[in-house]
Specification:
By secondary structure, this protein is mainly α. It has helices spanning 12-36, 40-67, 80-103, 107-131, 143-166, 173-186; strands at residues 4-5, 70-71, 77-78, 133-134. The two termini are 26 Å apart.
């Protein structure tokens, strides 16, 4: 049985993955803020851009972090269709959450629905990405940790969307992006 190494490249992959999560969050939150100040087609386009930025940012963060994993005695490969499906799934489900916030009339309900959808998008991306791993051996999940990771994803997404609804200046996006980057990376 091989030994799992969570950081086979040292701090490089965790640091890069955190940076990517923060960049994706910053872009996505900035686009969401712009969307909330827009109407019509412009709002829709900003929300699509926000979903793409957040979804691809968390996917890139996850994939970079996965590149840092090593298992002694086996090569790690990825199923390309499942890996791409995890990217598409992240953008689509995060899009549902972003659109719920962008078009919701009841802010509290929109925030809760948007946070749930976006968090489930993050979690589905993560576990689809994990399912794409190909190695000699088996991967087992602790159901409690899986449930906790989904709860963290939903809480992080809800907090980020709350920030998007309440951010009034572009400077406030930076701290919100750091929080979202840390929360998504901790999942």
């Amino acid at each position: 049985m091989g030994h799992l190494d969570h950081a086979s490249f040292g701090w490089l992959t965790p640091a890069l993955s955190f940076a990517m999560a923060c960049i994706g969050a910053a872009l996505g939150l900035s686009c969401t803020v712009r969307a909330l100040d827009s109407t019509g087609r412009s709002r829709r386009n900003w929300l699509i851009t926000a979903a793409s930025a957040i979804g691809s940012g968390i996917w890139t963060m996850h994939f970079i972090a996965m590149l840092g994993f090593g298992v002694s005695g086996t090569d790690i490969r990825y199923d390309v269709p499942l890996t791409l499906l995890s990217l598409l799934g992240a953008m689509v489900v995060v899009g549902g959450g972003v659109f719920a916030v962008g078009y919701g009339h009841d802010r509290t309900r929109a925030l809760l629905l948007g946070g749930l959808a976006t968090g489930l998008g993050v979690a589905s991306m993560h576990y689809l990405g994990m399912a794409a791993l190909r190695l000699h051996g088996t991967i087992h999940y602790d159901p409690l940790r899986v449930a906790l990771s989904v709860a963290v994803a939903v809480a992080a997404a809800t907090a980020a969307l709350w920030a998007a609804l309440n951010i009034k200046s572009s400077r406030a996006v930076a701290p919100a992006s750091l929080v979202m980057g840390a929360a998504v990376s901790s999942m």
